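2024-03-11 09:14:02 INFO worker-7 job=invfold-0412 stage=load source=structure_tokens
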């Protein structure tokens, strides 16, 4: 047990329970010993209502933040200042600049900072990346639609400033996009549809360019009814590579090529253990940068109010 990294989890909500708890339990080298959550508790662990009380009382070496992005900076900065390694749920924060600040703080303190992008760990993402490494890409279409009432029931923070709205799932597509395309992606235009009683969009269309050569179009929509659609189609001069089901399946010219089970969060924790062991950080803001740019260059239209 002595070589185990003792870990604390902050924010015991939907994703912490469905993915983090089982994935930590299945990962060698790391053991969950404490929780900080204002309202929730986990039996058999040391429970606190805030991270500062936890950091003062527990000898954990690492902290995993599963709270909403608003307020994440203060939690991460506290943990880093206390000399603890930090893993951040996606999106790593409410803005890009605070992540650069955290990177500097972690570097100065000599601790690991890991900005996770769970969708990049989906089954076929690395296969698609190697297939596209030398491809001549003609265009990319992202179709990312789900029913917000099914996937985010009662979550107020997604509608508040910094909550990203439909970009909360949409950023998963952007994290895959920026992993599989060989050329840098930048935003050229965007249209954001914001319910009149909310601060964040319920739907968005984003136009991007891959290296100034290929057009990338993304459609994000939370008003979708029925099974979610999480697809990225990359047209190349030799055929079309489509990632379906959020990167669980790879299709070549309409024929299923490969698929595999979901081990996204197990891979994230294995990587966190590896980064800590090596004394390294892994900080990538690019998916969040694209969302920020969509907000910067995009036009907004008000649409009907949203009620959960
Ligand atoms: P959630 O169900 O709302 O849980 C977040 C937890 O954080 C809450 O249970 C809450 O616990 C705590 N919290 C601390 N400050 C909060 C605040 N100001 N407002 C609301 N809750 C606060 O959210 P989630 O779906 O787990 O998402 C958390 C993060 O994981 C987000 O960044 C999200 O993008 C990411 N994520 C979510 C999913 C998903 O499918 N849901 C998938 C992948 C990633 P206490 O009240 O006990 O403090």
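2024-03-11 09:14:09 INFO worker-7 stage=emit residues=308
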């Amino acid at each position: 047990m002595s070589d185990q990294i003792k870990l604390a989890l902050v924010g015991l909500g939907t994703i912490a329970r469905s993915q983090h708890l089982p994935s930590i339990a299945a990962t060698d080298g790391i053991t969950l010993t404490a929780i900080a959550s204002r309202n929730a508790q986990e039996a058999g662990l040391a429970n606190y209502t805030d991270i500062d009380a936890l950091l003062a009382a527990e000898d954990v070496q690492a902290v995993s933040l599963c709270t909403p992005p608003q307020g994440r900076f203060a939690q991460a900065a506290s943990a880093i200042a206390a000399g603890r390694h930090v893993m951040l749920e996606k999106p790593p924060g409410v803005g890009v600049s605070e992540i650069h600040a955290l990177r500097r703080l972690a570097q100065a303190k000599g601790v690991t900072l890991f900005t996770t992008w769970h969708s990049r760990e989906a089954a076929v993402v690395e296969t698609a990346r190697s297939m596209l490494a030398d491809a001549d890409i003609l265009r990319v279409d992202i179709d990312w639609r789900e029913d917000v009432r099914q996937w985010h029931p009662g979550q107020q923070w997604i509608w508040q400033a910094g909550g990203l709205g439909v970009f909360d799932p949409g950023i998963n597509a952007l994290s895959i996009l920026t992993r599989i395309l060989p050329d840098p992606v930048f935003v050229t235009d965007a249209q954001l549809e914001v319910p009149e009683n909310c601060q964040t969009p319920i739907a968005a269309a984003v136009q991007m360019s891959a290296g100034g050569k290929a057009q990338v179009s993304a459609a994000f929509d939370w008003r979708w009814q029925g099974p979610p659609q999480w697809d990225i189609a990359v047209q190349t001069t030799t055929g079309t590579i489509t990632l379906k089901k959020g990167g669980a399946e790879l299709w070549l010219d309409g024929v299923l090529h490969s698929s595999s089970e979901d081990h996204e969060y197990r891979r994230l924790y294995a990587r966190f253990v590896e980064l800590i062991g090596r004394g390294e950080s892994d900080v990538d803001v690019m998916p969040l940068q694209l969302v920020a740019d969509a907000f910067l260059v995009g036009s907004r239209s008000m649409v009907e109010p949203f009620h959960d």
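2024-03-11 09:14:09 INFO worker-7 stage=report msg="The chain has a mean pLDDT of 97."
2024-03-11 09:14:10 INFO worker-7 job finished
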